[in-house]
């Protein structure tokens, strides 16, 4: 199966990068070549796996998706309260997977959004004027 077979239509730029990578005779991965970043690559993999295992058979309710993400954070908190560091990491991984699957299904360019938000945050005052 080709990478293009499971990438949602994020945007034409990403699809062009993937196509160029597939046609590259050197065979380097998008991440290695710098064309597609790690987050976008993980979104593709997570969304494909979710679809392959029946977790994204049809259109999902956005509220339900966000609630499932929240539940993983709650599970991470409970693991933290119990002192189970491995379980904390596992629950945070579950959270990231759910976020990535959602972004894949909704054509959200999370990598770009993170980069833009980080740039914006550089312009904000210390603690954004808050106590914590």
Tell the overall outline: globular
Average pLDDT figure: 82
Helix content: 55-70%
CATH architecture of the domain at 37-122: Orthogonal Bundle
N-to-C SSE string, H for helix and E for strand: HHHHHH
**Count of individual beta strands:** 0
Distance between the termini: 48 Å
What radius of gyration results from the CA coordinates? 17 Å
Q: What is the quaternary state of this protein?
A: single chain
CATH class of the domain at 37-122 reads Mainly Alpha
- Under CATH, the topology of the domain at 37-122 is which? Helix Hairpins
Quick one: biggest sheet?
A: none
User: Could you name the ranges where pLDDT drops below 50 across 5 or more consecutive residues?
Assistant: 1-7, 25-34
What structural category characterises the helix and strand content? mainly alpha
Per DSSP, the total helix count is 6
Measured by DSSP, the beta-strand proportion falls in under 5%
Keywords:
6 helices; single chain; disordered N terminus; 132 residues; mainly alpha; Helix Hairpins
Write the layout of secondary structure elements.
Elements: H1 12-23, H2 30-33, H3 38-52, H4 62-81, H5 85-105, H6 110-122
């Amino acid at each position: 199966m080709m990478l293009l077979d499971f990438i949602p239509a994020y945007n034409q730029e990403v699809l062009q990068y993937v196509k160029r990578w597939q046609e590259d005779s050197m065979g380097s991965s998008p991440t290695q070549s710098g064309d597609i970043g790690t987050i976008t690559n993980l979104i593709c993999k997570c969304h494909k796996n979710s679809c392959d295992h029946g977790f994204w058979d049809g259109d999902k309710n956005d509220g339900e998706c966000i609630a499932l993400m929240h539940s993983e954070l709650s599970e991470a908190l409970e693991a933290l309260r119990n002192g189970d560091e491995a379980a904390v990491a596992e629950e945070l991984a579950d959270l990231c997977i759910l976020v990535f699957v959602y972004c894949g299904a909704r054509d959200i360019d999370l990598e770009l959004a993170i980069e833009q938000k980080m740039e914006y945050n550089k312009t904000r005052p210390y603690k954004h004027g808050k106590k914590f």
